[in-house]
Amino acid sequence: MGAVQCLSFRDYFSFSHIRSICHGFIYEYETPKIVTIHSISIALTCRLIQLLILCYGIAYLMIYKKGYQETDTSIISSITLKVKGIGYNQTGPNETLVVDGADYIVPPQENNALFLMTNFIRTDQEHSKCPEASYEKATACSNHSECQNKDFHKANGKWTGQCIKPSRSSINSSQTISGRCELEGWCPVENDTVVPNPIRDALNFTIFIKNFIEFPRFKVIRKNIQQSSDYLKACNYEKDEHPICPIFRVGTLLDIIESDPEEQENMLKLGGVIRVKIDWRCNLDKPLNQCLPEYSFGRLDAKFKEGSFSPGFNFRFASHWKHQNRSLRTLTKAFGLRFIISVSGHAGRFDLITLSLNIGSLIGILGLATFVCDIVALYVHGQSEVYRQQKFQDVDLNLLRLETLNSLAEGMMDEAAKRKTKNVENQEALKDNVIENHNTISITDSPTKDKYQRLKDNSHHRHLYDNSLSSSTKSVDHISTTANHYHQRQSNTTHPLTQDSASLTPVKQRRLGPKRPSQLTCSTNSSRDKVNIVYVDEDSPILDEKLPPDGIQRNLHSKLSLPNSNGNDQSNRPSPKIETFL
């Protein structure tokens, strides 16, 4: 068999093919085949997996995650921070510096952040020339050449190339005279090697956080100030007692994020970074006054015990002024706590579409049990081969085409056999009718005698008769053979037929004799099919009643053996025949 041929591009997009596809899409329904396996192990495995999936879907997806709600996480937030408190610091033997919110909040406003200065180093400077920092060894020199063409990335100003040595009166004669390279800039140079103690009462500073949020999908606006003014003036945030109070004490926050007192002291002295998270979890199916924030805190910078490079948090800022054409400034190195505020939100409300989608997802996940059980049944189970034969059906297109052709051939053969059987039955029935008619119809009253005489006198009809005689030779031979079989059967079953043919009537003699085409023949030819109508009369001149049956049969065969006079090839083709025996 040849390979399977695919449809051409033109046939595939033809109107008939597209119409058949549309017809099948509209009027046909497909459903998967279900194979039932009677196995306790596979059934229990499937039910156990389905039970776990149901527990996951109901307990976690529907209840914990509220899978029946439509959610909104695109929160819009605004934060305002305020700090209150008074602190002081000892700056000299008898000097005390008092600071308030305007001093230790630097800068005054930030986006979602706040810096609270808890320690500082201040240096009053003037723009002039002075020696470099004494704590840097690379700035030491003994002559001017050591300060020239020297690249020092930690320089506090522009080096002039001069080496400034202290006066001899300030040092002993036994010491080696060593100077410092001169610079031009802000003098004197800041010395931050020694860090002072933090501001006292910094732990009692309070931070007020005002937060406004909106869930745009549900058009819900909330704020974290829902209590009365009397409550807000007296409360401070406590995780257990006042979890929704928006006022936070610095000492309380340090206790939450860092339980080590030494780490707390270092954070006040050298600075640190603290995260404040405001989380809104709102179930809009409940009353709106239950939509309240939750606060959480954490430390973002590394611990000092880890010995990290540049620990804490600090920066410098300066305030400038002029006096008597002299440029002056106060340089401040600030250490403190930087608070970073982050806001997140999640709001949910019942939605039928969301519930339907989650239920559909849960039903789809239930198919995982079938998938696992199929793997077990196909590859692990002892009778996997039986299940594989029932589940999968192999289709060989070449074999299918061969079977289709064989079935068509068998159908054609059956149909031809049926037609042949039917023709034989019709011929037998026709012969029986002829025999019965011969008993009732007189020989002298044959209605075809006159027609036969006219056909015999007409030469054109004579020509047609010769043609039809040669073209129907095979069919007449078949009929004569059948008649001989019939004659033999009658002679074997009927006693009068065994008598001498001379004692029989002419009708019975004709009935016993072999059938042959008479001269009374009419042939009708059409363009496509030939139908030969043969009339056989008992008064045919060819038939001699005195001849015995054997002589009649030999005469018939001698006439049928004559060649066709016109030589037409189509006359040799078999054609359907209708024979009427009168």
Compact description:
This protein has 582 residues and is α+β, with helices and mostly antiparallel strands. It has helices at 9-12, 15-27, 40-64, 101-104, 229-234, 250-257, 261-270, 352-380, 384-391, 397-440, 449-457, 459-471, 473-493, 506-512, 549-560; strands spanning 69-72, 76-84, 87-92, 95-99, 113-131, 140-141, 158-164, 179-187, 206-215, 220-223, 247-249, 272-283, 293-299, 314-322, 327-350, 521-525, 530-536, 577-581.
What's the tally of helices?
15
Task: Sum up the overall morphology in one term.
Answer: elongated
Radius of gyration: 61 Å
Question: Helicity range of the residues?
Answer: 25-40%
- Name the structural class: alpha+beta
Give the overall pLDDT as a whole number.
76
Topology, number of strands: 18
Largest sheet, in brief, is: 9 strands, mixed
Unreliable spans? 441-449, 459-465, 467-582
Portion in beta strands: 25-35%
- N- to C-terminal distance: 54 Å
Oligomer: single chain
Q: What this model shows, in words?
A:
- The chain is α+β, with helices and mostly antiparallel strands and 582 residues long.
- It has 15 helices and 18 strands.
- The protein has helices at 9-12, 15-27, 40-64, 101-104, 229-234, 250-257, 261-270, 352-380, 384-391, 397-440, 449-457, 459-471, 473-493, 506-512, 549-560; strands spanning 69-72, 76-84, 87-92, 95-99, 113-131, 140-141, 158-164, 179-187, 206-215, 220-223, 247-249, 272-283, 293-299, 314-322, 327-350, 521-525, 530-536, 577-581.
- Strands 1, 5, 6, 7, 8, 12, 13, 14 and 15 form a 9-stranded mixed beta sheet that branches. Strands 2, 9, 10 and 11 form a 4-stranded antiparallel beta sheet that branches. A 3-stranded mixed beta sheet has the order 16-17-18.
- α3 runs antiparallel to α8 (352-380) and α8 crosses α9.
- Mean pLDDT is 76; it is low at 441-449, 459-465 and 467-582.
